[in-house]
Amino acid sequence: MKKVCVFTGAASGNNPIFKDTAYQLGTMIAARGLGLVYGGGKMGLMGVVADGVIDNNGHVTGIIPRFLDDVEVGHEGVTNLQIIDGMHERKELMYEASDAFIVLPGGLGTLDETMEITTWSQLGLHKKPVIIFNVNGYWDHLLAQMDHIKAQGFMHHDHKEHFNTVATIDEIGDVLDQVAAST
Questions:
Q1: CB-based contacts of 155: which residues, under 8 Å, 6+ apart?
Q2: What are the C-alpha distances in Å from 26 to residues 20, 49, 162?
Q3: What's the mean per-residue pLDDT of the chain?
Q4: Domain extents for the chain?
Q5: CB 154: neighbour CB atoms within 10 A?
Q6: What confidence tens digit (pLDDT) does each residue in 106-146 have?
C-alpha cells in the first residue's frame, strides 16, 4: 500500500473535532510513509488533511477540476496538483492513484464519492478497502439508511462487507495493516 485517498469536505463543519481529526489523520498518513490523494483544495477539511501530511514531510497529490480551482482554491503546497477538466475525471484519477479510501465528514460531494466507490466495490469492480471514519457519529444516519435499504429489500446482502466503519485513527491503522498483511 502506497497511497490512500481521503474523501472529505471543502468546509470544516461546525464542530472543532472534525478539523482536529482531519489534521491528525494527515499526520498519521505521513507517519506511515503513505501518500495522500485527495480533491486538491486548500479549503475545509480537505485542506486540513493535506496540511497534516505536508507538515510532516509527506507526499500529497491533489486532483481538482479547473472550474473548482477558483472555488475551492487549489492547494499550492501539495507535491503534485493536477488541474483537470471535470468531476468524473477527478474521481477516476483519484481511484486509479489510490490503494485505499478513507471517508471523513463532508457534504454532498463527499457522499457522492463515497457512494460511488462503495458501489464499485459492491459490483466487484475493485477490492480496495473503503474506510468510513465515523468521527463523533457523523455518519450514523448514513449507516442507518443503509440498514433501512437492506431491510426494505433493495440490497440483497450485507452492505458492511463493502466498507469498514471506524471511530478512531488507530482503527484506521489497524485496517490498513490488515490489508497490507493480506497482499
A1: 146, 149
A2: 10, 5, 24
A3: 93
A4: 3-177
A5: 8
A6: 999 999 999 999 999 988 899 999 999 999 999 999 999 98
Are the CB atoms for 103 and 134 separated by under 8 Å?
Answer: no
Q: Name the more confident of 153 and 29.
A: 29
Residue holding cell 466507490?
117
Alpha helices (runs of H) in the chain, residue ranges in sequence order: 16-31, 44-54, 66-68, 87-97, 108-122, 140-151, 169-182
Cα distance between residue 70 and residue 65, in whole Å: 9
CA gap 55, 44 in Å, rounded: 16
> pTM of the prediction?
0.95
pLDDT at 155 over 70: yes
Cell of 141: 444516519
Check if the beta carbon of residue 92 is closer than 8 Å to that of residue 68.
no
Q: Output the CATH code of domain 3-177.
A: 3.40.50.450
